[in-house]
Design a protein that fits this description.
CATH architecture of the largest domain: 3-Layer(aba) Sandwich
Shape: globular
Strand order of the largest sheet: 2-10-9-8-7-3-4
Helix content: 25-40%
Radius of gyration: 20 Å
Order of helices and strands: HEHHEHEHEEEHEHEHEHEHHHHEEHEEEH
Number of domains: 2
CATH class of the largest domain: Alpha Beta
Keywords: Aminotransferase, Pyridoxal phosphate, Transferase
Family: Belongs to the class-I pyridoxal-phosphate-dependent aminotransferase family.
Organism: Collimonas arenae
Distance between the termini: 46 Å
CATH topology of the largest domain: Aspartate Aminotransferase, domain 2
Structural class: alpha/beta
Pfam families: Aminotran_1_2
Number of helices: 15
GO cellular component, one term: cytoplasm
Bound molecules: 4'-deoxy-4'-aminopyridoxal-5'-phosphate, glutamine
Length: 380
């Protein structure tokens, strides 16, 4: 069979999690919590099953869930999406991203991707026959930043879409208003679409504000916004999320969604719709994770790692160049095998070879897990 994705192998997340379990390492690699979700959420889903919500839901998602999503977005970001036409429930953010790309990108179209980038973006563009145009973030004393002048220079008549991810995996950086203004300047007067990956929307720290693309009407009108309940409710294995987009974009999205997946499992949708009536779990998430970030960061201050800023997400990047000259992939394997703490090489988020001497740790872990990792890291 002639491969459609000849360059794709096993994802780095699977590789590092497998190695972590072989070596009995503390797994701070793949991003997922090592603690369970709220029992009230499990009860809401099991009640839905017991109450007979076990057949196909509507193609676009259970109405109560779409309403709850639209209400949350309006309350937090002030943008009004119509749950009937603008919100589609997806099998996680990954499907939302792929479906948005499949419906919008035609063969030969260019999609601007900012590196480091989540690993599903480039293959999704290639599957659609599109051409990824890669622009790398700059890395300075204040951490990673988006070079908007280079993005403007990368725009061509073939540019169909710009992909944005804030809060950003793996760097933990978040877009600010200056970034938003720069993006507005680039797309104004063009028909360029925005695909905004906001799966970490509720994890922004130190009083910063999540700049959802939908806060800004001139961007919202051309944007697909993707989020994931896996991150927000500590249920990465449930694979459920949503895409919000204006009616014309949602209509095309739904054409692909209908034949890609058709529907997303019914009882989980009902359970989340009930659970979302209480905003506390997502409103309290930032404080919950900021405390874990600080615990982990304070512990790392006693090591030779140089810490990069982590304004959002549940990831913290560290520069290990004072410790080793190994490549990032080799260092991550060494750290897992010899020190007993798994991490992800940031080079895995680049399409072309790039070494910065940086690895990513995930701090969505119980305090005792973080403390155990810190004890091991202190020995380096
Ligand atoms: N985008 C980013 C930036 C992510 O970090 C992840 C999860 N690792 C996803 C998308 C995929 O989310 P989901 O598990 O809901 O498909
Ligand atoms: N998004 C998670 C991460 O960045 C992993 C998801 C996956 O395993 N594909 O670690």
């Amino acid at each position: 069979l002639k491969s459609k994705l000849p360059r794709v192998g096993t994802t780095i997340f699977t590789v590092m999690s497998t190695l972590a379990s072989e070596k009995s390492a503390v797994n701070l690699g793949q991003g997922f919590p090592d603690f369970d979700c709220d029992p009230a959420l499990v009860n809401a889903v099991s009640d839905a099953m017991k109450n007979g919500f076990n057949q196909y839901p509507p193609m676009t998602g259970v109405p109560a869930l779409r309403q709850a999503i639209a209400a949350k977005i309006e309350k937090l970001y002030g943008h009004s999406y119509d749950p009937a036409t603008d919100i589609t429930v997806t099998a996680g953010a990954t499907q939302g991203l792929l479906t948005a790309i499949m419906c919008a990108v035609h063969p030969g179209d260019e999609v601007i991707v900012i590196e480091p980038a989540y690993d599903s973006y480039v293959p999704a563009i290639e599957l659609a026959g599109g051409k990824p145009v890669l622009v790398q973030m700059t890395l300075g004393a204040d951490g990673y930043a988006i070079p908007w002048d280079q993005i403007a220079a990368a725009v061509s008549p073939r540019t169909r879409m710009i992909m944005i991810n804030s809060p950003h995996n793996p760097t933990g950086s978040v877009l600010n208003l200056a970034d938003i203004e720069a993006l507005k300047d680039i797309v104004r007067g063009t028909d360029i679409l925005i695909l905004s990956d906001e799966v970490y929307e509720h994890m922004v720290y130190d009083g910063l504000r999540h700049e959802s693309i939908c806060r800004h009407p001139e961007l919202a009108e051309r944007a697909f916004i993707v989020s994931s309940f896996g991150k927000t409710y500590h249920v990465t294995g449930w694979k459920i999320g949503y895409v919000a987009a204006p009616p014309a974009l949602s209509a095309e999205f739904r054409k692909v969604h209908q034949y890609n997946i058709f529907t997303v499992n019914t009882p989980v949708q009902h359970g989340i719709a009930t659970y979302m009536q209480n905003p506390a779990p997502y409103l309290e998430l930032a404080a919950f994770y900021q405390r874990k970030r600080d615990l982990f960061r304070d512990g790392l201050k006693h090591t030779r790692f140089k810490l990069l800023p982590a304004d959002g997400t549940y990831f913290l990047c560290v520069d290990y160049s004072a410790i080793s000259a190994m490549s990032e992939a080799d260092f991550a394997v060494w750290l897992t095998s010899e020190i007993g703490v798994a991490a992800i090489p940031v080079s895995a988020f680049y399409d072309s070879p790039r070494e910065s001497g940086i690895v990513r740790f995930c701090f969505a872990k119980q305090d005792q897990t973080l403390q155990q990792a810190l004890q091991r890291l202190a020995k380096i």
